[in-house]
Structures are given as structure tokens and as C-alpha cells.
Design a protein that fits this description.
Blueprint lengths: L10 H28 L3 H14 L3 H23 L2
Helix pairs in contact: 1-2, 1-3
């Protein structure tokens, strides 16, 4: 975020704008990749893999994606525990 602060006259404005954009992209990226996983198509799966790799540069996406993966793993463990 530091290099992008030179595009703004006030550094705090840069921080607020970039943080807002980062959160927006992170939340939307997490939700969109989760929704794309629900489809069983191989074509969509390939696109989803590409999107996941592109979104990895956003920390909020990594956090959201990690939480989604943890919940999926726990749900799978709970389901398999019954057998």
C-alpha cells in the first residue's frame, strides 16, 4: 500500500481508499470462488482455480478463503464421524 500512497495528496486518504478496495475485493473474491465451487463443471473449475491464484495477492481474500476451507473441512469431519 505504501507505493500507492504517492498517487494521493493525503497519505491517510490513500490508506482508507486502498483498505476499502482491499476489503471489497477480498469479500467479493471469497464469495465468488465459493459459489463457483458449487458448480460441478470442469470448465468453471478451471476458471475458479485461476481466480483463486489471482486473488491470493489480497490478504482479506486469503483470510476469508481460509475460513471457508476450515468450515468445509469441519463439516466433512462431522459428517464422516457419524459412520
Amino acid at each position: 500500500m505504501y507505493p500507492a500512497s504517492f498517487f494521493f495528496k493525503i497519505p491517510s486518504t490513500a490508506y482508507v481508499v486502498l483498505t476499502s478496495v482491499n476489503i471489497l475485493i477480498g469479500i467479493n473474491g471469497s464469495v465468488s470462488t465459493f459459489v463457483l465451487e458449487l458448480f460441478g463443471s470442469n470448465e468453471i473449475g478451471g476458471i475458479n482455480d485461476i481466480l483463486k491464484n489471482v486473488f491470493l495477492i489480497f490478504p482479506h481474500f486469503c483470510l476469508g478463503r481460509g475460513l471457508i476451507d476450515m468450515v468445509k473441512n469441519q463439516a466433512m469431519a462431522d459428517a464422516l464421524e457419524r459412520f
